[in-house]
Specification:
heterodimer, A: 278 residues, alpha/beta, Rossmann fold, 6-stranded mixed beta sheet, globular, disordered N terminus, B: 519 residues, mainly alpha, 2 domains, 18 helices, 75% helix
Chain lengths: 278, 519
C-alpha cells in the first residue's frame, strides 16, 4: 500500500529539531482526585524512533498520550514537542504532531473528504499539498470510494483509518497513536504496521500505545512498560526480553518479559484461580 | 442512573444539590400567592371557567407530550449509547421499553411537579380542597403516560420499516409543523375575533368531547373541587385503567419488533454526497465555521429547533393583530420600541439554539479541534460567527419587516437596526461564553450539548441582559428631551458599551475555561 505512493504520503523530512528530541517528558505526573494515573515520567524519544508504550489496562498509557498532545494538563512536569511546551506553547507544539485516539469519535455529519479538508485547514496545509496528499492518503488506506459518504455510515475500522489519514494529512514530525490496531481487520492492521515503519524510516517519530505485544515486538525500536502509572522498564525489545529471562526473539519472549517486569504473572494466576473457584 | 450520577458527582456537588433543594422549595412555595392571584384575575374561581381552562390545558399538554415523546423515544431507544449493550443482555425487549417509558414518566412527573405544581396547589387553596392535589397528580400521570406509550410504540413500529435517522428528521419536521400550525390557528382565531389557543386565552377555554380522556381529567378535578368525590374518583380510576390498557397494548405491539428495527437502524444505507473542489484553503477559524454550517444544514432536527422559535416570532410580529397594539404605558415610547425588543427576544432563542451549544456540540469529537493548532481564541471566534450571522440576520429581518409595515421613518429604522445589531452581538457572545464555560462534551448527539439548567440560566441571563441593555440603559436616554442626534448617539454608545462589556466578560470566562479544559 505504501510503496505505490510513499513519496506523496510520507515525504522525507529534514531534522528541524536542532538537537532537541521531538518528544520529551520531564517529570510529568497526573493525579485524578488523589489517585495517581501517571507518576514522575521522564522520557525522551529520538527523531525517527518508533516508541511503543505497553502496559495492563488502567496503567496510564492513554493518560500519558493525552498529556503529550495537550488534551490533559499534567499535575506536574511538562511535555515538549519539538522543543515547544505543549501547555505554554500549545498551538506551536501541535503544529508538529498528529494524533489518532483509541476509538476515535469523528464528525458524523461530515464526509470523509470533508474531515480531511478540516484537518488540512486547521493545520494550514497549502492548497497544492492537499491536492496531492488527500487522494494519495485516501487511496493508500482504501477509503477513496467512501470518501463522499457521511462518517456516520463508516464502520469502526474505516473511522480508525480516516482518523489516521487526518493525523497524517499535515505530514507531522511526531505521530501519537493510542491503540491503533483496535478495530482494524488483519489486512488493514498489516498496512498500518508497514506505514508506521516507513514513517519512522523517513524521519518521522511515532509514539504508540498498544496491548498487542506482537506489534511492539515486531515494530518498535524501543518499548516502555507501564504499570500503575510508572514506567517500570524501558529499552529495546531485545533488552527487555533478556531482562525477562527469555530467549531474545523467541516466541512469546516479550510477553514473558512483560509478565516478569509487571509482576503480572503471579497476580494473574492467583486471580484467575480465585475467579474460577468462586 | 440519575441517583448514581448524583452520588458519584463528588462531595462538593452533592452538598450543592442538597443546599439547593430547600432554596428551590422556598422559591416554589413563594410562587403560590402569585399564581392564586393570577387564577382569580382570570376568573378561574368559578368551576365552569375552570373546566374550560383545564380542558384546554390538558389538550395542549397531551399534544406537547405526544410530540416530545416521539423525539424522546427515538433518542432513548435508538441513539442512546447503552442500548446495544442492553439488547445483548437477557433483558426482554418489553422490559427495556418499560424501563425507558418509566424514565420518561419520572422525568415528566418531576418537571410537572416543578412547573405545574404551584398551579395545582393554588387551585386547591382557591377552592379550599386539599384532596385535589393527589387526585390531579394521579389524573395527569394517567393521562400523560398514554401519549408517551403511544409515541414509543409508533416510533418502534416505524423504525421497523424506515431507518431511525429518517424518522428522527421526520419527527423534527412534524414538531415544527405542529408548532407553526398552533401559532397560525391562534393568530387566525385572534384576528377573527375569537380567543385562539394562546396562553392569554386560557380563561375562555375550549372544551373537548366528553369521551376524550383530557375532558375526564378536567371533569374529575372540577368534581373534586365541588365536593362530588365519587364521580371524581370514578373518572380518575377510569383514567388509570385506560392508561394501563394503552401502555400494555403499546408495549405488546412494539416489543416483538424492537431488536429487528434496532439492527436495521444501525445499517442505514450510505448516501454519496456531491463532491466539489475540495482543495480550497481557509483560515482555521473559518474552517470551524464551514464545518459547523455543514453539520447544521445536514441535521434537520437541529435546524428545526433553531427555526421554530424564529418562525413563531415571525408569525407573531407579522400577524395583523400585532400592528398598533400596545399598553398605554408604552404610548410615549419610540415607534420601533416594540419590534426592536421582540426581535431581540427572537435573537435570544437563536443564540440559545446555536451560540449556547456551539462548544458543547463538539461532544466527544472535541479532540479533533483540541489536538490541532487551533488556539482557544480562534475557536471562540470561529464558534461565534455562524450564530452571530444567523441571530443578527433573523432578528433584523423580523424587525425591519415589521417597521416597514408600520411605516416607520427610514432614519428610525436605521437607528433601531444599529441598536439591535449591537445588542444581539453582545447576546451571542454571552451565549458562546456561557456555553464554553459549561460545555457538555460526553455526547455524540449535538441536541444534548446543553443541559436543561444551563439553557434555563442562559434564557434568564439573556432576558436580563436585553432588559438592562435596551430598556434599562438605552431607552431612558431617548426619553429625556435632549435633541435627537445627541440622544441617539449617546444611546448607541451606551448600548454598544453594555454589549461590549457583556461580550468581553463572557468570552474571557469562556477562553479561560477552554485553556483549562481536560478531555
Amino acid at each position: 500500500m505504501v510503496g505505490m505512493s510513499a513519496t506523496v504520503i510520507i515525504p522525507r523530512m529534514a531534522d528541524q529539531s536542532g538537537g532537541t528530541p521531538p518528544i520529551l517528558f520531564e517529570g510529568v505526573a497526573r493525579d485524578f482526585e488523589g489517585r495517581v494515573a501517571v507518576a514522575d515520567l521522564d522520557l525522551r524519544v529520538a527523531s525517527g524512533e518508533l516508541f511503543g508504550l505497553i502496559g495492563p489496562n488502567g496503567a496510564g498509557k492513554t493518560t500519558t498520550i493525552k498529556m503529550a498532545v495537550g488534551l490533559l494538563r499534567p499535575s506536574r512536569g511538562r511535555v515538549l514537542i519539538c522543543g515547544h511546551d505543549i501547555q505554554r506553547q500549545g498551538s506551536e507544539a501541535r503544529r508538529h504532531l498528529g494524533y489518532v485516539p483509541d476509538n476515535a469519535a469523528l464528525y458524523e455529519k461530515l464526509t470523509g473528504l470533508e474531515m480531511l479538508e478540516l484537518a488540512s485547514d486547521l493545520h494550514g496545509v497549502s492548497r497544492e499539498r492537499r491536492r496531492r496528499r488527500i487522494p494519495a492518503l485516501l487511496g493508500a488506506l482504501e477509503l477513496s470510494s467512501a470518501s463522499g459518504q457521511l462518517v456516520q455510515s463508516y464502520s469502526r475500522g474505516m473511522r480508525q483509518k480516516l482518523a489516521l489519514c487526518a493525523a497524517l494529512m499535515p505530514d507531522p514530525e511526531v505521530v501519537f497513536l493510542d491503540e491503533p490496531t483496535v478495530g482494524l481487520d488483519p489486512h488493514a492492521a498489516r498496512q498500518l504496521k508497514t506505514m508506521l515503519r516507513t514513517l519512522c524510516d523517513t524521519g518521522h517519530t511515532v509514539f504508540l500505545s498498544t496491548h498487542a505485544l506482537e506489534i511492539a515486538s515486531a515494530l518498535c525500536d524501543r518499548v516502555g512498560i507501564f504499570r500503575a502509572g510508572r514506567l517500570v522498564a524501558l529499552g529495546s525489545v531485545a533488552e527487555l526480553e533478556r531482562r525477562g529471562g527469555a530467549d531474545s526473539g523467541g516466541p512469546g519472549a516479550l510477553e514473558d518479559a512483560f509478565m516478569a517486569v509487571t509482576g503480572a504473572a503471579d497476580e494473574e494466576t492467583t486471580s484467575l484461580i480465585r475467579a474460577l473457584s468462586a | 442512573m440519575t441517583w448514581n450520577s448524583w452520588w458519584n458527582s463528588g462531595p462538593g456537588r452533592r452538598l450543592v444539590t442538597l443546599a439547593a433543594l430547600p432554596v428551590g422549595l422556598v422559591i416554589w412555595a413563594s410562587l403560590l400567592p402569585l399564581v392564586e392571584h393570577l387564577l382569580r384575575a382570570a376568573h378561574l374561581d368559578h368551576p365552569q371557567q375552570l373546566l374550560g381552562a383545564l380542558s384546554t390545558l390538558t389538550i395542549v399538554l397531551t399534544a406537547f407530550t405526544l410530540g416530545t415523546s416521539v423525539s424522546f423515544a427515538l433518542a432513548s431507544v435508538y441513539f442512546a449509547r447503552d442500548v446495544e449493550w442492553l439488547l445483548l443482555t437477557p433483558i426482554s425487549a418489553r422490559l427495556l421499553l418499560s424501563y425507558r417509558l418509566l424514565s420518561q414518566l419520572t422525568l415528566g412527573i418531576c418537571l410537572g411537579a416543578l412547573l405545574g405544581g404551584p398551579v395545582v396547589v393554588a387551585v386547591a387553596l382557591l377552592y379550599a380542597s386539599p384532596g385535589v392535589v393527589p387526585l390531579a397528580a394521579l389524573d395527569m400521570t394517567s393521562l400523560l403516560v398514554m401519549p408517551m406509550a403511544l409515541a414509543l410504540a409508533l416510533v418502534v413500529l416505524l423504525v421497523r420499516v424506515v431507518p431511525a435517522s429518517r424518522v428522527k428528521d421526520a419527527a423534527a419536521m412534524l414538531v415544527a409543523l405542529v408548532g407553526f400550525g398552533v401559532a397560525a390557528v391562534d393568530v387566525g382565531a385572534a384576528v377573527g375575533g375569537g380567543a385562539g389557543l394562546g396562553v392569554s386565552s386560557f380563561s375562555h377555554g375550549i372544551q373537548g368531547p366528553a369521551w376524550l380522556p383530557t375532558t375526564w381529567v378536567a371533569q374529575s378535578v372540577v368534581d373534586a373541587v365541588q365536593g362530588r368525590w365519587p364521580t371524581a374518583l370514578g373518572l380518575a380510576l377510569a383514567l388509570a385503567f385506560s392508561a394501563l390498557l394503552v401502555t400494555s397494548g403499546a408495549l405488546r405491539a412494539a416489543a416483538p419488533v424492537l431488536r429487528e428495527g434496532w439492527f436495521r437502524a444501525q445499517s442505514t444505507p450510505a448516501r454519496q454526497r456531491r463532491q466539489g473542489s475540495r482543495f480550497s484553503r481557509l483560515p482555521p477559524f473559518l474552517a470551524v465555521v464551514r464545518k459547523d454550517w455543514r453539520m447544521l444544514r445536514r441535521d434537520p432536527s437541529q435546524l428545526i429547533q433553531l427555526l421554530l422559535p424564529i418562525g413563531l416570532f415571525a408569525v407573531y410580529l407579522l400577524s395583523p393583530r400585532a400592528r398598533g397594539t400596545g399598553l398605554g404605558m408604552f404610548q410615549n415610547f419610540p415607534v420601533w420600541y416594540g419590534p426592536l425588543t421582540t426581535a431581540a427576544f427572537a435573537a435570544l432563542f437563536a443564540a440559545s439554539g446555536l451560540g449556547l451549544r456551539a462548544v458543547g456540540s463538539e461532544g466527544r469529537q472535541f479532540w479533533c479541534l483540541k489536538a490541532s493548532p487551533l488556539s482557544p481564541r480562534s475557536l471562540l471566534l470561529g464558534k461565534s460567527i455562524l450564530p452571530a450571522v444567523i441571530a443578527v440576520a433573523a432578528s433584523l429581518a423580523l424587525m425591519v419587516t415589521t417597521e416597514v409595515r408600520e411605516a416607520t421613518p427610514p432614519a428610525q429604522i436605521a437607528f433601531s437596526a444599529v441598536l439591535l445589531v449591537l445588542c444581539v452581538l453582545g447576546l451571542v457572545s454571552l451565549a458562546i461564553g456561557m456555553g464554553a464555560v459549561w460545555p457538555r462534551l460526553d455526547w455524540t448527539d449535538p441536541r444534548r450539548a446543553v443541559g436543561i439548567w444551563l439553557a434555563v440560566t442562559f434564557m434568564a441571563t439573556g432576558a436580563a441582559y436585553i432588559a438592562v441593555c435596551l430598556v434599562g440603559l438605552t431607552l431612558p436616554l431617548l426619553l429625556t428631551g435632549v435633541p435627537a442626534p445627541v440622544s441617539e448617539g449617546m444611546a448607541i454608545l451606551v448600548c454598544g458599551g453594555c454589549a461590549a462589556a457583556t461580550a468581553g466578560l463572557a468570552l474571557a470566562a469562556g477562553h479561560h475555561r477552554l485553556l483549562s479544559l481536560d478531555l
